[in-house]
Amino acid sequence: MTFTADSTKKQGGQIISYAGKYNVEITDAVYSVSKSSGNEMVTITYKVLDGTEAENIIPYDMLIDDRADDVPGATKTFFAYKKINSFLVDGLGLADGTPFELKDAKTLLVGKRLSVNTTWRENEFNGKKSWRANVSSYHTMLQGGSEPNTDKPRPEATDSGTSNQGNAFGSPQNGNGAFGAPSNNNNAFGGSNAFGSPASMPTDNDQPPANFGAQQPQQDPFGNQGANFGGGFGQQ
């Protein structure tokens, strides 16, 4: 039987190929505590919902609560916790004063939809340089659909002549077939991840928590409407 190629029905799973603006759904949100600073943080994974990058992912968006560092006389100039406020207010539409427990992130966030703007950020770990998709801002859903910026593809690694772009089966796109040899088996932030693309160290210099991707017990921090955010988080 003849098979007809169809670009609208591709298997997803690889990291996005272009920077841009994307309608996304949160597919995972993992809570952990930084070993180095003691700060609470959440690692979020997004799936693109539409357009040419549909079903592809934007992994390792780190939300870090460093409010304890924001004290009079602090020499620190950038505070990561402000990104959490942008995520909650600009992306999910929460009103001021709405409580949010980071430890309940999986229960509260998985399945929520928003849009994100992405750029590329170079990362070096264990002597290897790679480029990660960096979420720069959060917004409500784009009515006109996702907008990949084809003028800004993922840059190539600076320490090799092969592209960082990988396919869903763990092979670099260097001429091998989709079921070619796996990439180097480095850790999740130094080499290739489960999706075949290099991933980066989180901004708080921690590896993903040991339970990354594991299901957490369902919790109801907002009373009887916990999963619905007590009315503060409407479905998009």
Overview of the structural elements:
The protein is mainly beta and 236 residues long. It has a domain at 10-148: OB fold (Dihydrolipoamide Acetyltransferase, E2P) (Beta Barrel). It is 7% helix and 28% strand. It has two helices and six strands, in the order βββααβββ. Strands 1, 2, 3, 4, 5 and 6 form a six-stranded antiparallel β-sheet that branches. A hairpin with a 6-residue loop joins strand 1 (18-33) and strand 2 (40-48). The radius of gyration is 19 Å and the shape is globular. It starts with 17 loop residues before the first strand and ends in an 83-residue tail after the last strand. Residues 160-203 and 212-232 have low confidence and may be disordered. This is DUF669 domain-containing protein. Residues 159-173, 200-221 have a biased composition (Polar residues). Residues 140-236 are annotated as: Disordered.
